[in-house]
Amino acid sequence: MSEAVPAAPDETDRRIINALQGDFPLVAEPYREVAAGLGLAEAEVLRRLDAMLDRKVLTRFGPMFQIERTGGAFVLAAMRVPEVDFERVAAQVNAFPEVAHNYRREHALNMWFVLATATPEGIAVTTAAIEEVTGLRVFSFPKEREYFVEMKLRA
Amino acid sequence: MPELDALDRRLIVATQGGLPRVPRPYDVIGAGLGIAGDEVIARLRHMLDTGVIRRIGAVPNHYAIGYTANGMSVWDVADERIDELGATVGALAFVTHCYRRPRRLPDWPYNLFAMVHSQNRGEVTARVAEIATLLGDACRGHDILYSTAILKKTGLRIAG
Question: Under CATH, which number does the domain B69-146 receive?
């Protein structure tokens, strides 16, 4: 894996992560409520949250928006990139601001990315532009139905 | 599509990077937008109720918490059973994302995508076998696509 693994969270960090994967309270002093539930001081929770974000144990903390509900659109897409061209194509694809995530995967379809655009029409426009620049076909896999999405992993 | 006014959009832009780690975070966000913390709370609550916000919380770096194997399992499931079976697969604790997507024949025969995060590839394989058992003869084939590099990860943003 090409990504560096940050320092492991300790037991208290893990309790905080697990507590914060539920619904963060919508009250004036939400951290105090979370801290009370964990038997910790509010300052300790704040300090550890900051530290985990700095160390990239957490990638973010806050509201998770469903961009498609705000009028935008996103779609999963994949390409079959010849190995010799992989770096060039990755750079070309990543240069599009509409490309939010891009992963290399072990398969004939070896590049998988998510396109996010302000309007549904933007998806087709961007897909065509990527095909034009790279000279490769883009397979798109729009979500037809979502069965369950939580992205909660027990720490 | 839920109605979002200009202030909602400014609130999204102000919070999509994260919530401030201060005792009264909603007051701080409100101060930046010229509204009271209570108004921030009410608008976030409304966006949660309408699904604009999925949830408010922490997103762990899955490598940091030990989930170093990330396998995208893909399945060719009979169309007449996919919704029933997709819901069953999606409910499994180790499946973090589960979607129905179109096949792209002849290049791509799979119509069900289930993301499996585990400590190692052996565990991913075991969990995928569990899914295979669950799908039984409604499934005509499957594959696991492991990620070997993150090429880009900026998250989904709306323009400010």
Answer: 3.30.70.920
